[in-house]
Amino acid sequence: MDYKEIIARYDGKVGGIIEAYHALLREFSYLPEEAIAEAARVFKLSTAEAYGIATFYSMFSVEARGKNVVRICESAPCHVAGAADVVAALERELGIKMGESTADGKFALEFTECVGQCQATPVITINGKPYLDVSPAQIPAIIAEYK
Amino acid sequence: MVNLTIDGIKVSVPEGSTILQAASEVGIKIPTLCFHPDQSIKANCRVCVCEVEGNRLLQAACAMPVFEGMVVKTRTPKVLEARKTILELILSNHPQDCLNCIRNGNCELQDLAQEYCIRENPFEYKVRGFAKDFSTPALFRDQDKCILCRRCIEACSVVQSVNALGLEGRGYNSMVVPTLGKALIDSPCVMCGQCIHACPVGAIGEREQIDEFLAAVANPDKVVITQIAPAVRVAIAEEIGMMTGEMPMGTFVQGLRQIGFDYVLHTNFSADLTILEEGNELLKRLKEGGTLPMFTSCSPGWINFCETFYPDLLDNLSTCKSPQQMFGALAKTYWAEKMGIDPSKIYSVSIMPCVAKKFEAARPEMNDSGYQDVDLVLTTREIGRLFRMSGLDFSKLPASDFDSWMGKYTGAAVIFGASGGVMEAALRTVYEVVTGKTLEDVNFAATRGITGIKEAAVDLDGTVVKVAIANGLANARKLMEQVRAGESPYHFIEIMACPGGCIGGGGQPITKANVKRVERIEAIYAEDEGLPLRKSHDNPEVKTLYEEFLHEPLGHKSHELLHTHYHPKNKKFL
Ligand code: SF4
Ligand code: SF4
Ligand code: SF4
Ligand code: FES
Ligand code: FES
C-alpha cells in the first residue's frame, strides 16, 4: 500500500503519528523520508519534529533495513543470561553484524532495551514477536521460519 | 505578591515568578544554560539547581515557581557540588577548544567553567566527533560543542516558524539536527542566523571571512572599498566594550580606514536610493493595478523565506534589490567611472548586521555590473574582531568622514536598521511625491518599535494607503497567510526576518535578550533625529546619481542594475 494511504488512516487520531509509524513499519520495515514528511503534513507538525519522533523511539528506524527485524535485548537480565552468545549465533547465522541488514533485504539485526519478558531471558523478538529463553542452538530454526 | 527568603534575604515577587527571577531581584545570580529570557522554560540542563526547604531533591530555579514562605538556599555545599558535577559532565564530551573557538570570551559554558573553578575533570573525556556542517555560505554548525539546550530549536521554530532544526534520537545519543538529519543547506533554513544568538556556546556561528579580507588588503592590485549598513554603527560599540550607540560615526569611519579600507562609503546612500525606486514602484503598482500588497525586499533572510515557503507570492515582492546589492552594482559601474578606477580592481566589502547577506552577495544573478557586485560580506561581529585585532583605542581616535560619491545619506536611510524604518522612510518620500506638499512632521510613531506586527494608514490626498510591518518570520507568516487567502487589507508590507529588524540581525553582537534590541532601536531613532536631512529624496548625492546616470526612477538603467527577480527554492522537505 502507498505510504500516503497508510498515514491517512490515522488522520485526526490522538497520537496518530505513532500508530501511523507502526503501520508504515509493517509495510516497509523502516520510515522513508517522504513518509515522515507526509506524516508531518497530516499531523500538522514540522518535518523536523516528525523526524524527532521517528528517531526518539528505538523501535522505529529511519534507515532502510531488512524486512524482518530481529532484535535482541541487551538490558541487564538478558545480558547476564548470555545474550552475547545469542548475538554471536545470530551474526553467524545471518552473516551480518549487529546493526546491519542482509544483502537480500530479508533480515535486519538490532539491539533493543528490555521488552518486559525478564522471567525468560535471553529474549529476542522478530517483527515484534518475542522468543523466550533462547539458546544459540535454537537460532537457525527460528530464523528459518522467516526465510 | 508572594513572600519568600533567598539566602536569608527576604523578597516579595509577583505570583508565578520563578526562583530565578526572585533571586535576581535581590542581586543573587543563579547560573543558567538552557534558560533564555525570551523563550519558554526548558529546564533540561539543571545547572540552576537550588535547595528549597522541605524538598529532598534539588530544584531547578529557572522552572520552580515561588510560594508563600518559601525558603531557598542557592549556594550550600550540596548545591555547589551538584552544579560542579553537572558542568563536569557537560565538559566531559565538550571539545577543549576554547582558544580556537568563535565564542571564546563570549560563551555561557566557558563563563560557568571559569566561575565554578573547573580544573580537573573526574569524568572520562570523550568528544562525540561529528563532522562540522559548512554547507551554507552564511553559517556553520559544530555539533560537538552543542550542549543540547534546545534554544536554537525554539528560535528557529517559534520565533522564525522555519523549523529547520529539531532533535534526533534520545538520551545520550540525542542531538540537534537540521530537518531529517540532513545538511543545513538541505533543510528549509533561511540563513537568518537567529539560532546563533540563541546558542549559549560556539555550536553555531557565522562563516567567518576575516582571512579573505586581510588577503584583499594585502593585495596591492586591489582597491578595497566598503559600505556600512545602518544597523552596524549602533551595535559595533558593544563589540569593543562601549555602550550601545556610543560609537561616533566619525570614529567608526577612522577605525575602518585603519584596518585597511581605501574608501569608506555607506549603504545608507543606497538605502535612500532604494526608497526612490521602491516608492515609485509602489505608486506605479497602485496606479496601474500591479500586484498588491507589495512586499519590501531588503532582508535576504525574508527573501529566502518567501522563496521557500511562499513561492506563489513572489510577484508581490518589490523587484528592488536590497541596498547592499544596489550599492554593489553601482560601485563597479557609476562609482568606478566617476573615480576613474578600473572596476576589475575594486574589491567591494559590505559590513552587515546579517549572515544571510553573505548568501545574498553570492547569488549567481548578483553580477549586473559585469563582475560579482559585492565581493565579501563581513558581519558586525567580524568587524568587532578586526577592531580588537588592530589594537585601536576608540576613545582617542580622531574622527574621519565618509568618502564622496555614495557616502552621503539622510535620516530616512538610518532608520532602515529598525523594524518599520523602511516603511517610515518610504512614507516620508511617497507622501511628498504624491501630494506635492512638504511633510512637516516626519515621524510616524505607529511604524516604530519591536512589536511583531504593526499597522498604519496614511492619507495621500484622499487615497488611503494601508500598510503593515512584521519583524521576525513567525509574524511575517501570519501576514503571508492573509495574503495567500486573499484577505490582506494592505497595500504595502514591510518584512524584516529578524526580531526588531536589522539591529537584531544574525550578524550583530551576540544578543542574549530582546531588551538589547530595544536599546539599539532607540539609538537608531536618535541618530535619525540628529540629522539635517531626513527624507531620502533630499539626498544630494542621490539627486546627482539620477541626473548623471540613472535619469529616472524605474528607468532603463535602474532596471538593469537595481532590480532583480526571485526564484522558488523548491526545497524537497519543509
Ligand atoms: S563553546 Fe565555549 S566552552 Fe566550548 S570551546 Fe567554545 S568557548 Fe570553549
Ligand atoms: S539560520 Fe535561521 S532559519 Fe536557519 S537554522 Fe538558524 S534560525 Fe533556523
Ligand atoms: S546548537 Fe546551541 S542553542 Fe542549539 S541546542 Fe546546541 S547548544 Fe543549544
Ligand atoms: S532484560 Fe531482556 S527482556 Fe527484560
Ligand atoms: S537553566 Fe535551569 S535547568 Fe537549565
Describe the structure.
The complex is a heterodimer of chains A (147) and B (574). Chain A has helices spanning 3-8, 16-28, 33-42, 47-56, 76-80, 83-94, 139-144; strands at residues 68-73, 107-112, 124-126, 129-131. Chain A is α+β, with helices and mostly antiparallel strands and 147 residues long. In chain A, α3 (33-42) crosses α4 (47-56). Chain A is elongated and about 45 Å long. Chain A starts with a helix and ends with a helix. The model of chain A has no long low-confidence stretch (mean pLDDT 91). Chain B has 574 residues and is an alpha/beta fold. Chain B contains 19 helices and 17 strands. In chain B, a hairpin with a 6-residue loop joins β3 and β4. The longest helix of chain B is centred in the middle third of the chain and has 22 residues, at 267-288. Classes of the chains: A alpha+beta (147), B alpha/beta (574). Chains A and B meet through α3 and α4 of A and β7 of B. The structure holds iron/sulfur cluster (SF4) (3 copies) and FE2/S2 (inorganic) cluster (FES) (2 copies). Residues 73, 75, 77-78, 114-115, 117-118, 121, 123 of chain A line the site of one FE2/S2 (inorganic) cluster (FES). Chain A: InterPro entries: NADP_DH_HndA-like, NuoE-like, NuoE_dom, NuoE_N, Thioredoxin-like_sf.
Terminus-to-terminus distance of chain A: 22 Å
Bound molecules: iron/sulfur cluster, FE2/S2 (inorganic) cluster
Count of strand segments of chain B: 17
Mean pLDDT of chain B: 94
Looking at CATH, which topology of the largest domain in chain A would you report?
A: Glutaredoxin
- Secondary structure class of chain B reads alpha/beta
CATH superfamily of the largest domain in chain A: Glutaredoxin
Protein name (chain A): NAD(P)H-dependent oxidoreductase subunit E
GO molecular function, one term (chain A): metal ion binding
Cofactor (chain A): [2Fe-2S] cluster
Keywords (chain A): 2Fe-2S, Iron, Iron-sulfur, Metal-binding
